[in-house]
Design brief:
This protein is an alpha/beta fold. The chain is 34% helix and 29% strand. The strands form four sheets. Strands 1, 4, 5, 6, 7, 8, 10 and 12 form an eight-stranded mixed β-sheet that branches. Strands 9-11-13 form a three-stranded parallel β-sheet. Helix 2 runs antiparallel to helix 3 and helix 3 packs across helix 4. The protein starts with a helix and ends with a helix. Bound molecules: 1-O-pyrophosphono-5-O-phosphono-alpha-D-ribofuranose and uracil. 1-O-pyrophosphono-5-O-phosphono-alpha-D-ribofuranose binds next to strand 4, strand 6, strand 9, helix 5 and helix 7.
Length: 219
Amino acid sequence: MMTKEDFLKDSRVTVVDHPMVQHKLSILRDKNTPSKQFRELVRELAMFEGYEATADLPLEPIEIETPLQKMTAYQIGGKKLAIVPILRAGLGMVDGVLDLIPAARVGHLGMYRNEETHQPVPYYAKMPEDIAHRVVLVVDPMLATGGSAVMALQYLRQQGVTGTIKLMFLVAAPQGLEAVLECDEDIQVYTCSIDDGLNEAAYILPGLGDAGDRIFGTK
Ligand code: PRP
Ligand code: URA
């Protein structure tokens, strides 16, 4: 299995290690953090991570006029963006990324893990009509075995998405990272942590528990 050091050498992997992010992630992991605060933290962390994930967007010049004079300023150019949350837990990250990119479209991918096989079971997909022409940001707090993210990547390529797909997680297991990096050459992965591994139920260790249940208070 690849080690943390191997991942850090891969230019496709970014660990967002800003102190504010690491501080908020610790509160998120704490089992005593209630759902309301958990949801707020997922949203905030998604915004901070989205800042990193959009750092390479191209700029184009635009002529504007300040109160004093005309100038050439810059605006985001290139392809438009789409945010694609993997339901349910990915929904918790959407508003944080939309805070940064209000004009982005949102496509939804519904899948849950079979509790015995840990394989993802797809149940819903609704993308913006022009998804093939957009830069796609996949969002999901958890990358465990990688099964769900791999299925999401395969689905998006089938929909005609070309170019670099960006995947944003809050916590990633080495097994999941290895799976997505092997599945698709043209991706960029962002995570706030590379954790130690998985338990027998394929939950991330030390992780933060079941992200969907903690966001929506279902357990
Ligand atoms: C969680 C999580 C990911 C997936 C990660 O979703 O939000 O989508 O598991 O696991 P994997 O990398 O092994 O595929 P879950 O299936 O629990 O569904 P939920 O968000 O609806 O609770
Ligand atoms: N899904 C979660 O919500 N948490 C894990 O640790 C693994 C998968």
